[in-house]
Write a structure and sequence with these properties.
Helices cover 33% and strands 17% of the residues. The strands form two sheets. It has a six-stranded mixed β-sheet. Strands 7-8-10-9 form a four-stranded antiparallel β-sheet.
Length: 326
């Protein structure tokens, strides 16, 4: 080989592979910036991870709410679903050698329910990987980017030659979001006795009523409703005209949805704000002197506050007309 050809090859390699020793990786920077521009708050990533776990649980059909109830094959399939659902959400282009192409850079996608458990295939060597992690028990999730280097990986002898990142080299991961709050799996985190009471009835409507009685002041997602109701018209079972909203009004319980008017009432009462497809229930009473500085919402011409445990039950007011948030 001629000297000038060898020099050319070395120059080409130095351009293709960023100088990690100097901490420079312009491709990683480009991908990082593109992702942050698409989802500056991380809410879209959090929703995809929440929805993917719920998709695997398939609560409407199975009644499952716990990751441990999944079959081994379903858990193995989780990574593929995360990869597919992220691509659908963000419309990442197909990669040439890896899963995606983001900002004109090939990026592989790896998911693990166990932090640090990302299985890196040989073909990902020297490529960027988007590492996703979500833990339903901790209600946390993380997303990061890393350039895969052989010396950073654990040795292994599994049949497909996939390796994991050494714990001491996880500091090479550039986190987009680290230990962010995953939308809560309410059924998983409910008190055991409360959860048993929710599922005690054979009636989907009665199960939903019990859910909103016992899981107050918490954001209850569409999948939780679907899992408890186990009926195709599950959202109808929440609303008025025979649903939980009308059934629980005599008990003083409001069920606020993702409408702008409902979110405003939740904000005035100091409750968590229901996001798209979510509900928040709470028992209210008309404001009296002993409620002092409690947050107040005006409904039906009266002031209402969150009920204290010793407040007598009174019928809740009707919620304002529905105006869906933007």
């Amino acid at each position: 080989m001629l000297p000038f050809e060898e020099a050319d090859i070395k120059t080409a390699v130095s351009v293709a592979l960023p100088n990690l020793a100097a901490g420079v990786d312009p491709e990683l920077d480009r991908v990082y910036d593109r992702i942050m521009a698409q989802d500056p708050t991380g809410r879209r990533f959090a929703r995809v991870l929440r929805d993917t776990i719920d998709q695997l649980l398939n609560g409407e059909v199975t009644g499952r709410y716990d990751w441990k109830a999944l079959f081994k094959t379903e858990k193995t399939h989780a990574g593929t679903l995360v990869e597919i659902n992220l691509q659908r959400e963000f419309r990442f282009a197909d990669g040439d050698a890896m899963d995606y192409q983001i900002a004109d850079v090939d990026v592989d996608c790896k998911y693990s329910q166990q932090f640090g458990g990302w299985m890196i295939p040989p073909e990902a060597m020297d490529h960027l990987c988007l590492l996703a992690w979500a833990d339903d028990y901790k209600s946390l999730w993380s997303i990061g980017l890393v350039r895969i280097r052989h010396e950073w990986l654990n040795t292994g002898n599994n049949r497909d030659l996939k390796l994991t990142i050494k714990a001491e080299h996880r500091d090479k991961i550039r986190w987009l979001w680290r230990d962010e709050a995953l939308p809560e799996n309410v059924l998983l985190h409910m008190d055991t006795a409360d959860r048993a009471a929710v599922f005690a009835s054979d009636s989907g409507q009665r199960r939903l009523n019990e859910l909103f009685r016992r899981a107050q002041k918490r954001r209850i997602g569409r999948n939780v409703v679907r899992t408890v109701a186990q009926q195709k018209d599950y959202m109808k079972r929440v609303r008025g005209n025979g649903g939980s909203r009308s059934a629980l009004r005599p008990e003083g319980i409001l069920i606020m949805g993702d409408y702008a008017s409902h979110r405003e009432i939740a904000a005035q009462l100091g409750l968590p704000l229901p996001e798209e497809g979510e509900f928040v229930s709470a028992r209210v009473v008309s404001a009296r002197a002993h409620h002092q500085d409690a947050p107040v919402a005006v409904l039906d011409g009266k002031q209402w506050v969150l009920a204290q445990s010793d407040d007598p039950v009174e019928s809740a007011p009707p919620l304002p007309s529905h105006t869906r948030q933007d």
